[in-house]
Every structure is written in C-alpha cells, then in structure tokens.
Write a structure and sequence with these properties.
The complex is a heterodimer of chains A (about 300) and B (about 280).
Chain A (H helix, E strand, L loop, with lengths): L3 E2 L1 H8 L5 E4 L8 H9 L5 E4 L4 H9 L3 E6 L11 H9 L6 E4 L2 H12 L5 E3 L7 H4 L4 E4 L6 E5 L6 E9 L5 E2 L7 H7 L2 E9 L2 H5 L5 E3 L6 E4 L17 H10 L3 H13 L4 H8 L1 H6 L18
Parallel strand pairs in A: 1-13, 2-3, 2-9, 3-4, 4-5, 9-11, 11-13
Antiparallel strand pairs in A: 6-8, 7-8, 9-10, 10-12
Chain B lengths: L31 H11 L6 E4 L3 H11 L6 E4 L3 E2 L21 E2 L2 H9 L6 E4 L3 E2 L5 E2 L2 E3 L4 E4 L6 H7 L2 E5 L23 H11 L6 E5 L3 E5 L5 E6 L5 H6 L6 E2 L11 H11 L8
Parallel strand pairs in B: 1-2, 1-5, 5-10, 10-11, 13-14
Antiparallel strand pairs in B: 2-3, 3-4, 6-7, 8-9, 11-12, 12-13
Classes of the chains: A alpha/beta (about 300), B alpha/beta (about 280).
Chain lengths: ~300, ~280
C-alpha cells in the first residue's frame, strides 16, 4: 500500500501540538522542508529533540513552535551561535525556553534505549562533570556484575521522528548513504515516522541493495517526495551544504525583526518546498551540485535458488 | 605527568625571542592564528588515531595529515573514520569527509566501538574556558540556570575527554578564556590536581589519561607532575608579559623557555592555498 503523501498532509496528520518531535540528521540530511511546514501550520508547544538543533530548530524556535529543546550541541556548525534560541535562553525573549541537555553519546544512547525498549542506556561519560547537576536525568548506576559505576540516561521515544533520505519506495523502505547520524535509532524509537526523500524508487531498487536499507516500511507512516528538502543542509551525492546560508543566518538571526522578516519571506511566504526551491533560483541550486561523481563499486549478492 | 619538553621541531638555537616573520631566512610573515595552527599540527607527529573537534582542531589536524602525520586517521564524531577531506570542511559533518573515507559508521558505532572501545589516541578539542588543570567549559558563561552567555554545550567533548587516550586543546588566550575557575565543567581535565585525577581515573575506569597539550596563539603548554599547565614554548613575537596578561592565574613557565619554530613557508602555503584560502580560521 502506498504511503506517499504531501508534506502538508503528512505534517497535519502526524505532528500534533505538544508532541515530542525529532527531526534528526547530523549536519547531513536535515529535513528543513518538514520544519518549515510545521512552522506554516503553526504547531505549538512542541518539545524539539535533536543532537544539534542547527538552523532548523533556531527557525522553529523563532517561529514560536517550541516550548522545550532536548539536545547535546547547540550551535551553528562551523559558524557560531544560534541567536534566536540564545535570546530565549539568555533573555527569555520573547519567552523562556526549557532545556534538557546531554552529550552526543548520551543522546545517541537515549534513542538506542528508546528503539530497543530498554529502561536506560549505560555509558562511560559524565564522570566529574557538572552535566548530571544540570540535568538530573543523567544518573550514576552501579554495575550488577562488579563494583564499577557508569552513568545512565533514560530512553527517548519521540512522538514523531522525521527522517530525510536519498530514496525510499512507496511503502517507506528507506535507504541512505553518507553520514548516518542516528536516524535509524531515532526512527525505531518513535511512535510515528515520516520519511522525506529526494527520490521515490521502485521496490526492486531497494531489494537490489538490502544492506543499504536503514529501516523498513514497517515502521513508516508517511512517505513524502521533496527534492532539495534538506537545503541548506545537504544530501550526499545530490547537493552540497549551503555554507553561504549558514553564514548568512548568523546575521539574519541576530535580531528578532530580521529573523521574522526572513520567516515571512522564505517560510510563510511560500506554499511549500517546490516554491522555495524556485525562489532559491536555478543558479544557486546548480552551484550546490557536486563538482564530480564518485560512484561506489557494486557488489554481487548472488542468486540462490 | 609528562616531562618538560620543547615544542616539536623547535631547535635549541631558537631559545630566544624573535620578531614575527624574522624566524628564518626567507620566511614569510605569519599571523598568530597561523602560528597556533602550525604548532598544534606539529604536536600530532607520531599519533595514529585522532578524534577531531569542531573549529580550530579541524584545520590543525588536516595540516598535520599533510605534513608531520601522514598516517593520521581522522575520526569525526559525525561518523567518518579515516577521512581524507579534499577541501577543508567548514563543519565536522561536511560531505567531503565521507567521499574516500575508510569507513562511514553510525554515531552509535563511533561513540561505542571506536571511542569508548579505546581506539582513539588523541581527542582534539576547542573550548570557551579552561583552568590551570585543563578542565574545560563549553556550556555556559555565568550561572547555568540564568546564563550570561549560552555556549553550545558538550557535543561529544565530555566523552572524548574521558575516553580518548589523551586530550589536546587548541584555543586563543584571553583573561576570559584562561580562568582561575571555570563556570561549568563540561569536560574533565586533571580535576584539582594530578594525583587526585589519576586516582579518580583509575577508580572510575576512564580510558584516558587526560589533557597533555594546550596550544594557544602565544605558546605551547604541557602539564607538569602536579597536573598543572606549564608554558613550555613561546611563539616568536609573543612576550611573557602578553602571556601573563591573558591568563587568569600565575602561569608556570619552563626555564629555559624555548621559542617555537616559526611556520615554514610550506606550512604557510598549505594553510593559505589549500586548507583555508578564505581565511575562515586564520583571520
């Protein structure tokens, strides 16, 4: 059965006010298209989970969709800070923002525990730091097999996880390559999963390379086909990270007024990703294509009858 | 901790201060940032597996790979092992670290098997604040609940500081960054001193032995037997007065104090023409 739907319908049906939402993707494959649709539909009181909130959560926080962030690294990677989020945290401007903070390994472990139905994830981190004081959900735990103490973090089970990928079939069997981040863990941990892809492919394409499948359609609720949906982040082999925009955002987000003006023009002012890409222009899009090809070799899985 | 030693490649003859750019015949003028990056890269000579942090470590390790440490395996927390970036990645999740890498793995594998499994020789970090014992703050300036400045937070730094065999730090010196007391301990260094830190590491089963090098825009520090930072080399053009004016405690200084060998023209060419032609790291 086809799960292919529009971004508008997927977000309307599967993202609700008050949800814990994870739009994952570590620098790579960040689904800005879904974040912008959530802003357009004026979802409210969301808890936004992501290792690196990145520009997408800065935009979603600026637009008033979120009451809380669950994260491990809060910055504009390679550029600086996230100013809309900082205004909320440092000056409660225009309202306070609740923070629940871990390290990267802690966040990865939380999704892993959530995906595997475990009550906690143990890790060798946090010793002699102030992080367990800042977040009482990071707790020491004694090994049942010896004297050792490690730290434990609780499972994270998002109400909805949104994953961007190179390709999926209509059932949601999803394949990606390049940096994998923790999309697999975040998807398996979630109650509902939206997959957004650059390309919809036949089931036979998936079956020809089963090792590349990160999760099956079994856990997917909706498939949205939205080329360039990860811009200004990137998709390995399809387009580059738009570093110019990451630098531009630093200036845009410094003032609430310029941030709102940007949201008006680029989010509220367009009907969806297709219009956004058109507005971006063919030149900008072309400038982000890889400078050459680097195809993988193919492998032979063999036929066994 | 480690014995006093001179900066890698620093000739004994260069033990007196020299003006910037006057370090060798025909040597080009260079900036403080360039000197810092070159000095940090040289410290990686002989190392095998390096976990690369955000920012300045990124350019330092890539310079090391092209100069003193061609065998260096770059590990990025985003999941690339054995990365061979064809351009300097602006972020640690750039697509150029994937193409041609030895392996691309999930973050779960990277943190569990590579880092916590003990395969990382050097964790290379930046920081907002550091104290004399190499404890690092990258979380907040001011009170945690009501911060004056909200910084990015740990990312992977906390577990890198605990599980990498040793930790290198690169950061610019200032009274705001080299402080007597850090506002928040994000990544543990030598805690309150070497003896207590060694005991804690043993008791808690840490794999790492903590910080071993801090490279700044003014000099190179190692850690002495008490676990405290000691200035072991001063960069050409920098003065002890500048060092003391940009540090929040009375720093220990090696005697005699050698001068760091100035960047070679090849090191400068690599930074300016190949690694950072836009000057993103060296401005």
């Amino acid at each position: 059965m086809s799960k292919v739907t529009s971004m508008r319908d997927a977000v309307a049906a599967l993202v609700h006010d008050g949800d814990v939402v994870a739009i994952e993707g570590f620098t790579h494959l960040i689904c800005f298209a879904a974040g912008h649709e959530i802003i357009r539909q004026r979802k409210r009181d969301l808890t936004l989970a992501r290792l690196t909130p990145d520009l997408i959560y800065d935009q979603m926080v600026a637009a008033g969709t979120a009451r809380k962030l669950v994260f491990s690294w809060l910055g504009n990677p390679g550029v600086g800070g996230l100013h809309a989020i900082r205004r909320r945290v440092e000056d409660a401007d225009p309202a306070p923002l609740e923070l629940e903070e871990y390290s990267h390994f802690g966040m990865v472990g939380r999704y892993t525990a959530g995906a595997s139905n475990l009550p906690f994830f143990p890790l060798r981190s946090y010793f002699e730091t102030d992080l367990p004081k800042a977040n009482p959900l990071i707790r020491p735990i004694r090994s049942p097999f010896g004297e050792e103490t490690v730290y434990a973090v609780p499972p994270l089970k998002p109400d909805v996880t949104i994953v961007h990928a190179q390709r999926a079939d209509a059932d949601g069997n999803t394949q990606m390559w390049g940096l994998l981040g923790c999309q697999k863990e975040a998807a398996f941990a979630a109650e509902r999963v939206i997959v957004v892809v650059e390309e919809l492919v036949e089931e036979s394409v998936i079956r020809a390379d089963p090792n590349r499948t990160v999760f099956p359609g079994l856990i997917v609720d909706a498939v949205v086909v939205e080329p360039f949906g990860a811009h200004p982040s990137y998709v390995q082999g399809a387009y580059d990270r738009d570093n110019r925009f990451y630098r531009d955002w630093d200036a845009i987000a410094r003032e609430a007024a310029t941030t709102q003006a940007w949201l008006d023009e680029w989010v509220y002012g367009v009907s969806g990703r297709a219009e956004y890409v058109e507005k971006l222009g063919v030149e900008r899009v072309a400038s982000l294509r890889p400078s050459g090809e680097a195809p993988s070799g193919s492998v032979d899985y063999g036929v066994y009858k | 901790m480690s014995e006093p030693r001179m900066a890698a490649n620093a000739p004994a003859a260069a033990a007196t201060g020299a003006a910037p750019g006057a370090a060798g015949p025909g040597a080009a003028a260079f900036s403080k940032s360039e000197m810092m990056i070159v000095a940090a890269a040289r410290e990686l000579a002989g190392q095998r597996v390096c976990f690369v942090g955000v920012g300045l470590p990124n350019i330092a390790v890539n310079l090391a790979r092209l100069t003193v440490a061609p065998e260096l395996e770059l590990v990025y927390e985003s999941g690339a092992y054995g990365a061979k970036p064809a351009r300097l990645p602006l972020s640690i999740g750039d697509p150029t670290i994937v193409t041609g890498a030895t392996a691309v793995v999930s973050m779960f594998e990277l943190f569990s098997f590579y880092l916590q499994g003990g395969l990382v020789d050097v964790g290379f970090l930046g920081a907002a604040q550091i104290d004399r014992f190499g404890n690092i703050n990258s979380t907040v300036i001011g009170d945690y609940e009501h911060p004056k400045t909200r910084l990015p937070g740990s990312g992977g730094a906390c577990e890198i500081a605990i599980n990498a065999r040793q930790v290198f730090v690169i950061m610019r010196q200032s009274k705001r960054s080299f402080v007597d007391r850090i506002d928040f301990r994000t990544s543990p260094g030598n805690l309150g001193g070497a003896e207590a830190a060694a005991r804690t590491r043993r008791e808690e089963g840490w794999l790492g032995s903590g910080p071993s090098v801090v490279v700044t825009d003014l000099g190179i520090y190692h850690f002495d037997e008490t676990g405290e930072m000691r200035l072991d080399s001063i960069h050409p053009g920098a003065t002890l007065e500048q060092v003391r004016d940009t540090i929040g405690w009375q720093p220990k200084v090696a005697d005699p104090l050698p001068t760091t060998l100035a960047p070679t023209s090849e090191e400068l060419r690599l930074i300016r023409e190949e690694l950072d032609p836009e000057g993103a790291y060296t401005k």
